[in-house]
Each structure stands twice: as structure tokens, then as C-alpha cells.
Amino acid sequence: MYYIYMLRCEDNSIYTGITTDIDRRMQEHFGKDNKCAKYTKTHTPKKLESLWSAENKSLASKLEYHIKKLPKEDKENLIKTHKLEYFLSDKLDVNEYKYEKY
Fold it and tell me: Is the pTM of this model over 0.85?
């Protein structure tokens, strides 16, 4: 299982990433661990905003890519609604992803 997540940073930017272990990855980001992303070393994360799961790395990478390509306004609306179909149904099969509570 792979997870695709969106983090809100203190400067109000949004970081999107993928992982196989969401608990470990959040500890790395929030603890500024050596393994945290270069982006979250300089943009302190403050909150996990959204989380989806996918069956494999290929699907997870596709969703991550398309979320990163969205304009900031669409990312904000995606965080509010968690509805991939509103923003990405023309780019990928949104039924391949499941919104997760964390």
C-alpha cells in the first residue's frame, strides 16, 4: 500500500509526497529528520491536510504528479473537499484511490 499526502507548511505552502509508511514519514517531516524532504527542511510543516491510498507505487506516483501540477487554488479546494474527481478525473482514474482519515 502506498500513501499520497498533502502537508500544510507554516508559510501556507503545500507539500505533496508519497510513502509506504505514513507514520514514519510524518515523523521524518515534523521532526526535521535527515530523511525529511529538502522542501520541508526549509518550509516547516505544521499539519497533514489530506491523505489517499493506492495499491502500488505507479498509481501513487501518478496522483502525486497530478496534484503537484494543480494551481494553488485547486490544491486548497482539494484539501477542503478531498474529492479527486472534481480536479483530476480527466487526468487519471480517480476510483483507483481511497481517501484516508489519519
Answer: yes
